[in-house]
Amino acid sequence: MRFRGILFDLDGTLLDTAADLAPALNTVLMEQGREPLSLAHIRPCVSHGAQALIELGFSELGQDEREPLRQRLLETYLANISTHTRPFPGVDALIDLLDARRIPWGIVTNKPARFTDPLLNDLGLNRRARCAISGDSTAQAKPHPLPMLTAASRLGVAPQDCLYIGDAERDVQAARNAGMACVVAGFGYLGDNDDPKTWAADAVLETPQALLDWVRARLIEDTLCA
């Protein structure tokens, strides 16, 4: 298995964004006179977007009632988008490895660009990633293959030579739909009902160190076989 390009999901894979999304949700909850939720309770919903977070906190409300709360959540999050968010410990070492090996890498996320762009800019990742495809960068979002294929094109790498790393079932589906290999970041935002071993990924890697070791071995393999 050889890789000439690597693509990452953002929330729960490359970055630990729960550290800022959870406080944003709790701000909205407290503004509505409700008790805040624990990070452990919020964390599994983070990869599923703002709608899922609002449904978690306000499950009894209808869609029309939830929408202004969702907008307030997004407003609060954008104002504090990089306060605590950082790459998962160990994932930054993987990025360093890719840069050192001159392996092009990028990001494919369903997060809208108005959040992706300032976040990557704040963390200095916009200068390192070859591309960042957001949820509204193309006409379709994951699990559709279009954003994946767009990213591969921008890397200058054929889809079959790309590896996609994500933490949700739709990430595996998107990779397969695009003809890419895929591994699951088992350290990401998985819920109690998620069983990534049934998602038909090439591997489920439970820690960033395991991910680093898995990718490094295959980059070494690529170097030896080139």
CATH class of the largest domain: Alpha Beta
Number of strands: 6
What is the CATH architecture descriptor of the largest domain?
3-Layer(aba) Sandwich
Q: Looking across the biggest beta sheet, what order are the strands in?
A: 3-2-1-4-5-6
Instruction: Output the structural class.
Output: alpha/beta
Indicate the CATH topology of the largest domain: Rossmann fold
Unreliable stretches, pLDDT < 50, 5 or more residues? none
The total domain count is 2
The tally of helices reads 9
Give helix and strand order, one letter per element, not per position: EHHHHHEHEHEHEEH
On the 0 to 100 scale, the average pLDDT is 95
Largest sheet: 6 strands, parallel
Oligomeric composition of the shown chains: single chain
**Percentage beta strand:** 5-15%
Indicate the overall shape: globular
Describe this protein's structure.
This protein is α/β, with parallel strands linked by helices and 226 residues long. Helices cover 46% and strands 11% of the residues. It contains 9 helices and 6 strands; from the N terminus they run βαααααβαβαβαββα. Strands 3-2-1-4-5-6 form a 6-stranded parallel sheet, with helices on both faces. Strand 4 (162-166), helix 8 and strand 5 form a beta-alpha-beta unit. Helix 3 crosses helix 4 and helix 5 (91-101) packs parallel to helix 9. The radius of gyration is 17 Å and the shape is globular. The mean pLDDT is 95.
